Write the structure tokens for this entry.
Amino acid sequence: MCASRQRNPDIAGTFTRGVTETETETEPATVLVVDDEPQLASLAGAYLKRLEADLTVVTKTDPRDALARFEAGGVDCVVSDYEMPAMDGLELLGTVRECNAAVPFVLFTANDDEAVARCARERGAAYLRKEGPAGGFDRLVERVADALGDAG
């Protein structure tokens, strides 16, 4: 079973998730990063922390563990590699969409197959290549910031 909570930016502009309609406290937004290469998952997490100091970034190197974390609820955005053992990024996207069609999903990959990019976009995900001097991590931060802002 999938749990979900709505996330909204507060008036100060930080990314937070509403706890309930009647409570006034909010929780920081949570981004789930999935990459079978631990160094890249950690690097993506470090870049994403630049968005907001209290942003929660959860990194997983196994997409099955990531899916279990997602299904537990409270994830506001998913960033996933494409080529991973056990399950590729499109399979993960499909399962995430079955659970919550609205959660922002960024397929962040070195794969340059246009068919993969098209499939991701058709399922409502952003497709972003790991390339350039910073590996595309600066663009990833921009894309996640946009996604969290749009989701609020």
About this structure: Helices lie at 38-48, 63-71, 89-99, 114-122, 137-151. The first strand starts at residue 16 and ends at 18. Residues 4-16, 18-24 have pLDDT under 50 and may be disordered. DSSP finds five helices and seven strands in the chain.
